[in-house]
Specification:
The complex is a heterodimer of chains A (648) and B (259). Chain A is α+β, with helices and mostly antiparallel strands. Chain A is 37% helix and 14% strand. Chain B has helices at residues 33-46, 130-137, 159-169, 176-180, 187-198, 201-204, 207-220, 231-235, 243-257; strands spanning 3-9, 18-24, 80-82, 85-86, 108-113, 121-123, 126-127. Chain B starts with a strand and ends with a helix. The chains are: A alpha+beta (648), B alpha+beta (259). Chains A and B meet through helix 3, helix 5, helix 6, helix 12 and helix 13 of A and helix 1, helix 2 and helix 3 of B.
Chain lengths: 648, 259
């Protein structure tokens, strides 16, 4: 089956590949576009921008989201910014540099051609967003402002205060609204995709549950685009929104789409630490804070003790008694090392006993030096709303005492395997944004998720999908009474009936919490073979417990959030297991994936290019059966593969 | 901390609805209001009362439904009317950013859904805000197609103007303004969008038409009129100023005069 993994990377020089591919793609004439239907699942940056752009092109689009409005998708919560190779700062930025930084930041586990295209279209994204009326930050001369993010040495990040994701999403949502008004897009809010329908090997529709009436509904189309984000909530506690889930992606996997690099999950270094066991969600503090904030822990363990007992405050610890460990270990990048490096360094200090809060799982992010250097007003302009947000949550003011932060699950680089056209191993099924695996390798750089979502949605999939659809316009509208649809609906119904029939005593969340603990312990920031095997076993046991003891109250035919959660948890079990299998297979440390067995004497991650320079694409083999691994070799023709170095 | 929670329960849009009171204890001061509701729901489910059983004499209607998602104050999903205030007693926060330290230990807290003719209740504390989407579909956009944009720096916008536009663009579409307004008006919501775009050169061209169409849609969907009580501004979690309503009115009047 390995022949399914054809990446379709165009021949020719890197900088000409996208142009070449575009010139080869068959077009669909306007009158034929009218006959073609496309389903887009998800309305974050990827889904909303794709649906709007496809609608503009003249296709008939149906767009689905689980929330009450497309505007609530979790892209909205992205704070810091969006990268683009505009070189407006004249700091010698270029498409090549953005490409290079992304490949290097991803620890040489992303495809060259895809990443180059991402960098290539990045500038047009900013143009598009400004034209939509997104109020990006401006210099006093009226030009666009930029800032820096981790893992890079130029300023290429565009931003709208600490609400860049919100503004970009409202822009895409506005374009979507324009198309809904024009009649080219039909919106289905409060609908959750529960299965993919495949007819003769091709994606032809979905089964969705209307979350208000509880009814299962069938939707047919000539192609399906999955834009449902990542699966970080497998860990229960993450920075993802409460309803973010991996179910749509997992259903595609079960229907034959390969799932790539599932173990690559990003742990973000700057989140507000866990405060007790009643919590269900972690809050991110934007990476942009690391532009001016300095990360440290005390040098002396006695100071740590006093901090934990509240006998002293951080501000009372003398400068020479502070260990600015990122600046010490990585002088070239200092506090702006990539996320995986910063997270591991925080864990290293806390494991050594230097964690600064009661749980011992926190480090300081300190602005006192920046406030002295820049003054109160300029710091407030840059980070005011983030400071407020921190104070609201913790009741402590970053103006007076440093913030306390700790790493948390934030983003998943892995996802549905796609070729250069963003098509999955199922013809007619596409995956975009965080839902696919394609651009970030083992670690995503800050401000690149927004870039990828919009690149895929505005500029890639609307073009590449034409190549597939150019062969489909003579096919009639998909009959949703076809046996494949009937069967898919029956299967979903059986899943729901099974859940209600259990009538146990445990809540969905209590079991999900346990899954989260297993994942964080064994598939978290440091992984080893023994732990990963344990995780697979423990998840299987927990799943058994779930099917024997869960209590899903209420009925199907009503608004029922417990049922929604139970269905998602079923899929998180599968995703967690798949992540563990992948992490077990990848016996190297790479990006966000750190295998204890593979490190240097200094404790830095040690990649194994000889054995693991490939994309691990997993094929579903049935319930409880180990999935089959397929390998797509990664070939670097334009970049010299070296050890990532942020030290000098 | 412990509390008595008097919560609105309503099976569906057709049900009349009623209050039920629950006691909850062991809540941390740093827990958010929604985390407290999560804990309540855990408790209600563990007690084994499901909604089907209510008719058979079970004392609770099962877990309480409420909209929520990001839990960091930006998605605008959460929408609770707490002790007579949209998003509760703290100023300029969404419900998810309201923390239990703002309540007195032992207090009885009343929790209701947004109450507005334009936002029918779906279940318990969940309402249908689809009307907001419809208003924005009536003109809350700039008519630019993907791919037609010029270089971003060809459009110069002064720092202050961009900031002012951003102030209005911060709207999260939660509906607190409507829930708070005695007339159930959506003026602040409409104004935020109209003003944010009208302040920018890109949005100028369609500004009047946008104002006219969005206001017409708002009226059609059953929202009330604005009588300048400014209650909306007080309760807006993002502190959006009623000054934007003045700008909306200007654009609206210009549109009327040019007819």
């Amino acid at each position: 089956m390995a022949d399914k993994l054809i990446s379709k990377i165009p021949e020719g020089p890197l900088a000409e590949k996208w142009t070449k591919r575009k010139s080869e793609i068959h077009l669909v004439s306007p009158n034929n576009k009218r006959k073609l239907e496309i389903i887009v699942v998800g309305t974050g940056l990827g889904g909303a921008s794709a649906a709007a752009s496809l609608g503009e092109l003249g296709y008939n689009v149906k767009v689905f989201c689980i929330s009450d409005s497309p505007r609530r998708a979790h892209s909205i919560a992205a704070q810091g910014g969006i990268n683009a190779a505009k070189n407006y700062q004249n700091d010698n930025d270029s498409i090549y540099r953005l490409f290079y930084d992304t490949i290097k930041g991803g620890d040489y586990r992303a495809r060259e051609a895809n990443v180059y295209r991402l960098a290539e279209v990045s500038a047009a994204i900013i143009d598009q967003c400004v034209a939509q009326g997104i109020p990006f930050a401006r210099e006093y001369g009226g030009y666009l402002a930029n800032r820096s993010f981790g893992g890079v040495q130029v300023s290429r990040t565009f931003y709208a205060r600490g609400q860049t994701g919100q503004q970009l999403l409202l822009g895409a949502y506005a374009s979507l609204n324009k198309e809904i008004a024009a009649g080219s897009v039909k919106s289905y809010p409060r609908h959750e995709m529960l299965d993919l329908v495949v007819v003769n090997g091709e994606a032809k529709g979905i089964i969705a549950r209307n979350l208000v009436t509880g009814k299962l509904e069938r939707f047919g189309a000539h192609a399906v685009i999955i834009a449902t984000g990542g699966y970080g909530n497998t860990y229960f506690l993450s920075t993802n929104a409460m309803n973010s889930n991996g179910s749509a992606a997992l259903q595609c996997y079960k229907k034959g789409a390969y799932f790539a690099n599932p173990c690559f999950a990003q742990i973000h270094p700057t989140c507000i630490p866990v405060h007790g066991d009643q919590q269900c969600k972690l809050t991110l503090m934007s990476e942009s804070l690391r532009n001016d904030g300095r990360i440290w822990v005390p040098k002396k363990l006695e100071d740590v003790e006093k901090l934990r007992k509240h006998q002293i405050k951080a501000s009372q610890i003398a400068e020479e008694d502070r260990d600015y460990y990122l600046e010490r270990r990585y002088p070239a990048f200092g506090n702006l090392v990539p996320r995986d490096v910063a997270s591991r360094a925080a864990k290293e200090r806390c494991d050594a006993g230097y964690g600064v809060n009661e749980t011992g799982l926190a480090v300081f992010l300190d602005f006192s030096e920046a406030i002295k250097r820049l003054g109160h007003q300029r710091v407030a302009e840059r980070y005011g709303n983030l400071f407020e947000m921190y104070e609201k949550i913790t009741a402590s003011s970053p103006w007076e005492e440093p913030m306390m932060i700790y790493p948390a699950i934030h983003y998943t680089m892995g996802g549905i395997w796609v070729d250069y056209d963003l098509q999955t191993t199922i013809p007619g099924l596409y995956a975009i944004g965080e839902a696919n695996f394609s651009d970030h390798g083992g670690n995503r750089l800050g401000a690149s998720a927004l870039m990828q979502g919009l690149a895929d949605g505005y500029f890639v999939v609307p073009i590449t999908i034409g190549d597939y659809l150019s062969k489909k316009f003579s096919e009639p509208k998909q009959d949703i009474n076809a046996p494949e649809f009937v069967q898919a609906e029956k299967d979903v119904q059986a899943r729901i009936d099974r859940l209600f029939a259990i009538k146990g005593t445990k809540t969905v969340d209590s079991i999900h919490k346990k899954l989260g603990l297993i994942m964080w312990e064994y598939v978290g920031m440091a992984r080893n073979a023994e732990g990963l095997k344990k995780a697979i076993k423990e998840i299987a046991d927990l799943k058994k417990d779930f099917y024997e003891n869960v209590n899903v109250p209420g009925t199907q035919y009503e608004f029922n959030q417990e049922l929604e959660k139970a269905l998602r948890l079923e899929d998180f079990f599968e995703i967690g297991t798949l992540m563990a299998y992948d992490a077990l297979n990848r016996n190297e440390s790479c990006g966000g994936h750190f295998r204890v067995e593979s490190q240097t004497e200094e404790g830095e991650a040690k990649r194994d290019d000889a054995n693991y320079m490939y994309v691990a694409a997993w094929e579903y083999k049935g319930e409880g059966v180990e999935p089959e691994l397929h390998k797509e070799p990664l070939i670097y023709e334009n970049i010299k593969v070296v050890t990532r170095n942020y030290k000098d | 901390m412990e509390f008595n929670l008097k919560i609105w329960r309503q099976k569906n849009a057709k049900d009349k609805g009623h209050f039920e009171t629950y006691h909850i204890s062991g809540i941390e001061e740093d827990a958010s209001f929604l985390e407290m509701l999560d804990i309540l729901n855990e408790q209600l489910i563990r007690e084994g009362c499901d909604p089907v059983a209510v008719d058979k004499g079970c004392k609770s209607s099962g877990p309480v439904s409420f909209d929520h998602d990001c839990r960091e104050g930006i998605c605008g999903a959460c929408s609770l009317y707490i002790d007579g205030r949209a998003h509760g007693p703290d100023d300029h926060v969404t419900t998810c950013q309201l923390f239990m330290r703002h309540f007195k230990n032992g207090a009885t807290i009343t929790v209701e859904p947004w109450r507005s003719a334009a936002f029918p209740v779906i279940k318990d504390l969940v309402v249908d805000r689809g009307a907001f989407d419809k208003i924005l579909q009536a003109g809350g956009f700039i008519s630019v197609r993907t791919g037609s944009a010029q270089d971003a720096n060809n459009i110069l916008i002064s720092h202050d103007r961009a900031e002012e536009s951003m102030d209005a663009a911060a709207c999260v579409g939660c509906g607190a303004c409507v829930a708070t307004c005695k007339n159930g008006s959506a003026m602040l919501f409409v104004a935020a969008r109209v003003s944010s775009l009208a302040l920018l050169p890109q949005g100028k061209l369609e500004a009047q038409k946008r104002a006219k169409n969005m206001v017409a849609k708002m009226d059609e969907l059953g929202f009330g009129n604005c009588t300048n009580t400014r209650a909306c501004e007080m309760e807006c979690p993002k502190g959006i100023s009623v000054a934007h309503i003045a700008r909306l009115n200007r654009e609206f009047l210009k549109a009327k005069f040019s007819e």
